[in-house]
Amino acid sequence: MMTKSMAEMPSNFIRDIIDADNAGGKHGGRVHTRFPPEPNGYLHIGHAKSICLNFGLALQYDGLCNLRFDDTNPTKEEVEYVEAIQEDVRWLGFDWDDRLFYASDYFEQLYRFAEELISAGKAYVCDLTAEEVRQMRGTLTESGRESPYRRRSAEENQDLFQRMKAGEFPDGTRTLRAKIDMASPNLNMRDPVLYRILHAEHHRTGDTWCIYPMYDYAHPLSDALERITHSICTLEFEDHRPLYDWCLDNLSVPYKPQQIEFARLNMTYTVMSKRKLLRLVQEGLVGGWDDPRMPTIAGMRRRGYPPEAIRNFCERIGVAKVPSTVDFALLEHCVREYLNRHAPRVMAVLEPLRVVLTNYPEEKIEWFEAENNPEDASAGTRLIPFSRELYIEQDDFQEDPPKKFFRLAPGKEVRLKHAYIIRCDGVRKDPSSGQIIELRCTADLESRGIDIPASRSVKVTCHWVSAAHAVPAQVRLYEKLFLKENPEEVESGDFKDNLNPSSLKVLSGCLVEPSLQKAKPTERYQFMRQGYFYLDPGSSPGLPVFNRTVGMKDTWAKISQQATTIKQS
Ligand code: ATP
Ligand code: MG
User: What is the rounded distance in angstroms from the CA atom of residue 172 to the CA atom of residue 485?
Assistant: First the structure.
């Protein structure tokens, strides 16, 4: 679980606001935030930013953070999403204690508030269609036109609103609108719709309601009922703030929270809208919401991203008022950095090539002790078996190598990790295909654990597994889901045209060292020279499946180094 010290983040403009509030005694020094997802999809990395921010602030200021479902749109919302969201927030390391709320818990109170507005002459039932409302709304340069229903008496409005609630009218025939100002320069203030008729079953309230409050009305009031102090949302809602405040100022609410906006997270090679992610799922373009290529929290979890790395990423990107796009490589860098410190090293051969050590006795097995993590002495050691028949990576051998190829070739030597130096004496080929099926090699049985003399050119250390002991496995390698830095950039068509057709590569016939027989989906491993891997939770005990979390090569380090060089020159 997160502790306060873990949540110590650098300052940002929101903390400055809170510090000033606390200094001036506003909110009585309290900090109470909320994370308000709509259960219409799985959470993504953008939501992680909001979660870390809201729960993080609560931790830093000894305050509280609620989890509140904004479930005011029954046609798009599902229980599956409600459950997935809770699992994801918990997995990220945050806890709402007993403060799990739903906007739908407040439907009755929101209805009473609407009656209050009607009595005060501040809301009216409007019979215009959605299209007519849109047409009369005006533009940024032109005022809107008042609805002919705007002058209805409070009594008539009360009666009609009650009948809307009672189900007398079909969908879309009437709305309840706030009576504010059709000439307001802010379009959100031009008599916005507060309630609409929708004869739809709600996942929590069933068919109790056939009118549903709009987000801009439900949100400030839910915040007020929960006595939220700082209601943090993304920049698109800046123009909605006057309406947020109008709702609070015109109703007898128990509290007046303040809305603060920050720039949402955008990331290269990533789409960050639930609507678009839903299309990828529904059209079968990915394996589901938790496909490891998805930018969802569930996808990242299944891919093997540690929650600590995601939190660290959110901390590093910080919070700002100005929109920007973060490099996907930074997220991968955070993952790699964490795993480098924590992941035990193991050997796994993804595309095996058989090696026979002709000078090694047939029945002999040696067990070599290997360190689990050179970055962490407390990670201990394990034993790995060595024998006459081994597998190395196909890539590590070339029969006719170019000049700078330092791996194995006929007459050349390499070091086997934790074991001997071997020399390739010859190859065996499949007589029909001509394919190399086996390398005939000699081991230098004196060479284990000694420094290689300068006279001998052994430049590469290869990973390997013992043929008799290796465990068969499947490995899934992932590339970026989109080919373009900005997936929305298309000449015609849509973002799906930019999907990377080779974002998933499945390798079967991989061979992993026997210690991985006990691999658990709570552990992440470094497959030496291949990257970091995570046991897919869908693996069967007979055939483990490993997802590559991230490769070894740190493109972020390169990018930031280039940036420094440019700055210096
Ligand atoms: P999307 O646009 O992806 O569908 P949303 O904003 O509709 O997301 P909500 O469920 O309403 O999704 O979001 C819950 C909270 O997460 C909101 O407070 C929202 O501001 C925040 N949030 C959503 N996307 C991002 C993002 N990309 N970066 C930061 N915060 C985000
Ligand atoms: Mg939303």
Answer: 40
Query: Mind listing the pLDDT tens digit of every residue in the chain (569 residues)?
Result: 555 554 556 789 999 999 999 999 999 999 999 999 999 999 999 999 999 999 999 999 999 999 999 999 999 999 999 999 999 999 999 999 999 999 999 999 999 999 999 999 999 999 999 999 999 999 999 999 999 999 999 999 999 999 999 999 999 999 999 999 999 999 999 999 999 999 999 999 999 999 999 999 999 999 999 999 999 999 999 999 999 999 999 999 999 999 999 999 999 999 999 999 999 999 999 999 999 999 999 999 999 999 999 999 999 999 999 999 999 999 999 999 999 999 999 999 999 999 999 999 999 999 999 999 998 989 999 999 999 999 999 999 999 999 999 999 999 999 999 999 999 999 999 999 999 999 999 999 999 988 877 788 899 999 999 999 999 999 999 999 999 999 999 988 999 999 999 999 999 999 999 999 999 888 999 999 999 999 999 998 789 999 999 999 877 777 776 665 554 54
The pair phi, psi for residue 546, each rounded to 5°, is: -110, 130
**Is 274 close to ligand 1, i.e. is its CB under 6 Å away?**
yes
* Cβ-based neighbours of 259, under 8 Å, separated by 6 or more: 220, 231, 232, 233, 237, 241, 244, 245
Contacts of residue 566, Cβ cutoff 8 Å, sequence gap at least 6: none
389 included as an active-site residue: no
Show the CA angle centred on residue 264, arms to residues 180 and 96, nearest 5°: 90
CB-count burial class (<10 Å; 0-12, 13-18, 19+) for 11:
exposed
Neighbours of 511 (CB within 10 A): 22
Place of tokens 């007459």: 411
Does residue 40 have its Cβ closer than 6 Å to ligand 1? no
> For ligand 1, is residue 50 a contact (CB within 6 Å)?
yes
561 close to ligand 1 (CB < 6 Angstrom): no
Q: Closest ligand 1 atom, CA of 274?
A: 4
Chain centroid to CA 316: 15
Question: What CA–CA distance (Å, rounded) separates 258 from 54?
Answer: 14
Nearest Cα neighbor of 326 from 195, 486, 433 is 486
Q: Which ligand 1 atom minimizes the distance to the CA of 50? A: 30
Residue 460 in contact with residue 409, Cβ under 8 Å?
Answer: no
Query: Distance, CA 231 to ligand 2 centroid (Å)?
Result: 14
- Probe ligand 1: pick from 50, 72, 101, 281, max atoms within 8 Å of CB? 50
Catalytic residue among 26, 38, 204, 238: 38
Ligand 1 atom, smallest distance to 272 CA: 3
Q: Which of 270, 290, 265, 266 is nearest to 498 (CA)?
A: 270
Nearest CA to ligand 1 atom 29: 264
Cα 237 to ligand 1 centroid, rounded to whole Å: 11
> Exactly one of 264, 354, 480, 496 is catalytic; which is it?
264
Structure tokens at 275: 């609507």
Does residue 343 contact residue 532 with C-beta atoms inside 8 Å?
yes
Residue 471 CA to residue 543 CA, distance in Å, equals: 8
Q: Is 38 a catalytic residue?
A: yes
CA distance 519 to 533: 11
